[in-house]
Write a structure and sequence with these properties.
327 residues, alpha/beta, TIM Barrel, 8-stranded parallel β-barrel, two-stranded antiparallel ribbon, 13 helices, 14% strand
Length: 327
């Protein structure tokens, strides 16, 4: 048993998190994660309306009686979704753990805290983690440069970012980015983290609601098969390398180009088509560098059991042998 401040604070068995993923964080995956003893998050904005989110939460409860949470990603937009209504749906559904991401969650915290909700905020820098702690979150998830999605603009990898954060942040810290197995979990704990967050690894499981073609591609890919897009827009995103991501980078390399020049290529509906139809070049889709560590498509239970068992063996076996060896 790996017991940390994270497992104790959030009432889960294992220090492993499946964070929110657009089009992926649905009830069947989240329930499987919860049933394995880890903590899973439904992605609120995957659901088209707050009412649909209420139904998705209920569907998850039909599949598990263990704790799970909801991710609410807050991003600036010309026509933002009704965040307050999604937040109300989360609270009224009795959810007690929320993962926030994107913008500062300060405007949402009073409502969540008054409802007894614990909040984990995703950050990509130490300064943002400290600010999140200051405004009152219960834990932070720190994303290293290896992660899928948006790694921030500082380009600091986890081996540096995690201990830099844990040296200053007092609330539990979840390490994210580049983690896919027991070695990553043990390394994160050694760096001071209280648990790990895995996205790409959980996306490549049997219960993950993405097309089998996507899962097979992740298994085939190496750590070199990701592309950084939106660099020129100062909104860097790590996605799987495909025809679309290569085209986006090529367009960005031209002088005077802006978001309007790539808007149609990176539309969310196209990325959804990849996950639902298995057309790998239909749009951009997120994947982290850890895909180079992924070699199979297990059930969630098999994955979590394997990671925990191998982590315990690493701590009790190889590492203990190194410490206790001849000098």
């Amino acid at each position: 048993m790996l017991s940390t401040r994270f497992t104790q604070t959030f009432g889960v068995e294992h220090p492993i998190v499946q964070g929110g993923m657009m089009w992926v964080g649905r009830a069947e995956l989240v329930a499987a994660v919860a049933n394995s003893g880890a903590l899973g998050f439904i992605t609120a904005l995957t659901q088209p309306t707050p009412e649909a989110l209420v139904k998705e939460i209920a569907r998850c409860r039909d599949l598990t009686d263990k704790p799970f949470g909801v991710n609410l990603t807050i991003l600036p937009s010309i026509t933002p979704p009704p965040y307050a209504e999604y937040r109300e749906a989360i609270v009224e559904s009795g959810i007690r753990i929320v993962e926030t991401a994107g913008s500062n969650p300060v405007d949402h915290l009073p409502y969540l805290k008054d409802a007894g909700v614990k909040v984990i905020h995703k950050c990509t820098s130490v300064r943002h983690a400290l600010k999140a702690e200051q405004v009152g979150v219960d834990a932070v998830s720190i994303d290293g440069f290896e992660c899928a999605g948006h790694p921030g603009e500082d380009d600091v990898p986890g081996l540096v970012l995690i201990p830099a954060a844990t040296a200053q942040v007092r609330v539990p810290v979840i390490a994210s980015g580049g983690i896919a197995d027991a070695r990553g979990l043990v390394a994160a704990l050694a760096l001071g983290a209280d648990g790990v967050n895995m996205g790409t690894r959980f996306m490549c499981t049997q219960e993950s609601p993405v097309a089998d073609e996507v899962k097979r591609q992740i298994v085939e890919n190496t750590e070199r098969d990701t592309t950084l897009i939106f660099r020129t827009l100062h909104n860097t995103a790590r996605v799987a390398t495909n025809a679309i991501s290569r085209e986006v980078v090529e367009i960005e390399s031209r002088d005077g180009t802006g978001f309007d020049d790539i808007r149609d290529l990176v539309a969310g509906a196209r990325g959804r088509k990849v996950f639902e139809d298995g057309d790998l070049d239909a749009g951009i889709w997120t994947a982290g560098q850890c895909q180079g560590l992924i070699g199979d498509v297990p059930t969630v239970a098999e994955l979590v059991d394997r990671i925990v068992a191998e982590a315990e063996e690493l701590v009790r076996g190889r590492l203990a042998t190194i410490v206790g060896g001849d000098r």
